[in-house]
Design goal:
Largest interface: A-B, 56 and 48 residues
Number of strands of chain B: 15
Distance between the termini of chain B: 48 Å
Shape of chain B: globular
Structural class of chain B: alpha+beta
Radius of gyration of chain A: 26 Å
Structural class of chain A: mainly alpha
Distance between the termini of chain A: 36 Å
Strand order of the largest sheet of chain B: 5-11-8-6-7
Strand content of chain B: 35-45%
Shape of chain A: globular
Oligomer: heterodimer
């Protein structure tokens, strides 16, 4: 699938390629026209159709909510059923005419109207406000349409509804993980493997993340414990390693969607850990509960696999090292030296090392989001360190001086280091 | 790997059959839900309930009146350890005016005596205050009562009409519900001063 960033990159590269004489100006123009056609022209009616469909579905929902009694409710139900049928029939026609995106929009609208129909039945029979049960039925309808009509929009609705249902049941029961989630999630995951839609990929990954976040149980969130940060960190590391491995080894593209969300989690948790180790009241060890060990037991092997089996080691090794540094941060808290100067220096160094490793891996592998995440982590970490210093400002100044000098030393040796990691092809042969 | 992909498998069925099946299945889910409720209204045993209403709005279903009943809180005498979300069965007798009155709560289907109706519910809290005969919450005494939801707690009305019910003196409102032989309940009529204001046909 072509994205806006791809087009921007082409715009930057094409003039250079023409200037180098690798491409004629005429061919460059043909490439530009082809990309513009793929991105704009053909998709426009489908996008407008989808927005129109969403508005129609919202209109049906509002009509149902009005509870207008001049139309008998059986007629209203008949209208809903007819609207669903019309959407599916229209989707059939569009698919036949060779417009799969338009068909997708029509099916999505049909699933939303099905949701409005569920609300109508709930209203007709005064069903109690049990929204997780409603979400479950919407998820079922979405999955049916996603399988049979091969619709991405219906799959996206189903994934959101699955999360709403599972989250609602989890909150209601106030107990541990909601295992019923997988009954609907696994079919959705299977479907997403054969789709190339990025929205679906991201939703699949986010749904798994939300389940994993809830798995330790309601009680732990109720009485917050810093062990949850370690759990979140291990999950983020797992997501980053899995996403990077998928990019490197060409695994199903749904797994590559793990990378940005893992990076977001990593940056958030590492900066939070840095803020709290510098805070006298918040620098507490926290308890490593069962799920922290489980998350570490999953994250560490995946990082090891990334380091050991990646095709491009120059990218995988710095990344694996950065992730390992990140995983060490909660361990420093558990050793009990957190309030001492040593603990603060170690955690600050680990966070800066992890950030540097992310930037290095991103630059070498040409993955911009790694560079971005590393830079943000690095920049925010420095701001935090200036705001809540390690010891006095003079101590802080010394820390930055040593860290800066160490980075410069690494930079000067980097060329030799990378040359050794990936020998030029002539020598390898 | 490609052979096991969901879309490849489904593509073997002609599009026209898939489209028909989609419309049919979505319609069937809705109709099954309708029939499940209509069956209770057609054949269930009627019980009369006193009410305690308030008036909120549901984003997708419009205005509704939240109803609470004296049977919404039940004394769990001698049976400790009910959990939130647990399914329970409440035996209902009648008071002198003919309104339903909870006589006991059990985890398993109780032995029904003469004139006893059994209604199924779900525990929503296990240390609730009691609701007294006037419908007021009474938190004096021990708080070992169960709060139970029976699926009779919301009553949907046309937009704007919820307030009218809310402002009516709650002693004047009564609900007639139908209870199926398996204990499932549905609201059948809403009465003010003994006169039906809303009646619910099965369809």
């Amino acid at each position: 699938m072509l994205t806006g960033s791809y087009r921007k990159r082409l715009e930057a590269d094409l003039p250079r390629w023409v200037a180098e004489g690798w491409l004629s100006a005429e061919n460059a123009g043909a490439i530009r026209r082809s990309v513009a056609r793929e991105q704009g022209g053909i998709r426009l009616p489908a996008v407008l159709g989808l927005l129109g469909g969403l508005l129609i579905a919202a209109s049906v929902a509002a009509f149902v909510a009005a509870g207008w009694e001049d139309i008998p409710r059986l007629v209203k139900l008949g209208m809903i059923l007819a609207a669903i049928l019309a959407c599916i029939a229209y989707a059939f026609r569009l698919e036949r005419q060779g417009s799969p995106r338009g068909a997708d929009a029509a099916v999505t609208c049909g699933v939303l109207i099905f949701g409005a129909g569920l609300a109508l039945v709930g209203q007709m029979y005064h069903l109690p406000a049990d929204w997780p049960a409603g979400a479950l039925l919407v998820a079922l309808g979405g999955l049916i349409a996603a399988v049979l009509m091969r619709s991405n929009g219906a799959l996206a609705i189903a994934l959101i509804a699955i999360c709403a249902w599972s989250g609602g049941r989890w909150e209601e029961a106030r107990s541990g993980a909601h295992l019923g989630f997988f009954i609907l999630y696994l079919p959705a995951l299977w479907l997403s493997l054969s789709r190339d839609n990025r929205l679906v990929h991201h939703l699949v990954v986010l749904a798994a993340a939300s389940w994993l976040a809830m798995a330790p149980g309601y009680g732990l969130f109720d009485r917050f414990d810093y062990g949850l940060l370690a759990y979140g960190l291990a999950l983020a590391v797992f997501y980053v390693a899995l996403g990077a491995l998928a990019l490197d080894r060409g695994l199903p593209s749904v797994l590559t969607a793990c990378l940005p969300w893992g990076l977001l989690g990593l940056v958030l948790v590492l900066n939070t850990e840095l803020i709290r180790i510098l805070d006298r009241d918040e620098a507490r060890a926290g308890h490593a509960f069962r799920f922290v060990f489980l998350a570490y037991a999953v994250a560490i092997p995946v990082v090891a696999v990334l380091a050991g089996f990646a095709r491009e080691r120059r990218f995988a090794w710095p990344l694996a090292a950065g992730l390992a540094f990140a995983l060490l941060v909660p361990a420093v808290f558990w050793t009990g030296i957190v309030t001492a100067m040593t603990g603060k220096i170690i955690v600050a160094s680990l966070v800066l090392l992890a950030a540097t490793a992310l930037v290095v891996a991103g630059s070498v592998g040409g993955i911009r989001r790694l560079v971005l995440a590393g830079s943000v982590l690095f920049g925010v970490a420095i701001l935090i360190l200036l705001w809540q210093t390690i010891g006095t400002l003079l101590d802080q100044s010394l820390f930055f001086l040593v860290a800066g000098a160490a980075l410069l030393a690494i930079a000067s040796g980097a060329r030799r280091l990378f040359a050794r990691l990936n020998p030029p092809e002539k020598e390898a042969a | 790997m490609r052979a096991l992909s969901a879309d490849t498998l489904v593509a073997k069925v002609p599009l026209v059959w898939r489209a028909l099946a989609t419309a049919l299945l979505l319609g069937l889910v809705l109709l099954a839900l309708v029939e499940q409720r209509a069956r209770i209204l057609r054949g269930g045993t009627e019980i009369r309930l006193r009410t305690v209403p308030v008036d909120p709005r549901d984003l997708f279903r419009g205005d509704y009146v939240i109803l609470a009943y004296p049977i919404s809180t039940v004394e769990a005498a001698g049976q400790p350890g009910f959990q939130r979300g647990e399914r329970v069965y409440v035996s209902l007798g009648r008071d002198e005016q003919g309104f339903a009155k909870a006589t006991g709560v059990t985890r398993d289907w109780p032995k029904a005596g003469d004139g006893i109706v059994v209604i199924a519910g779900r525990v929503t809290a296990n240390s609730a205050c009691a609701t007294n005969a006037n419908g007021d919450v009474d938190c004096s005494g021990r708080r070992n009562r169960l709060r139970i939801a029976y699926g009779l707690e919301s009553y949907f009305v046309p937009q704007g009409e919820g307030k009218a019910i809310e402002t009516t003196d709650k002693a004047r409102i009564e609900v007639v519900a139908a209870v199926s032989s398996s204990g499932e309940a549905a609201i059948k009529r809403l009465l003010i001063d003994g006169k039906p204001v809303y009646a619910e046909p099965p369809y």
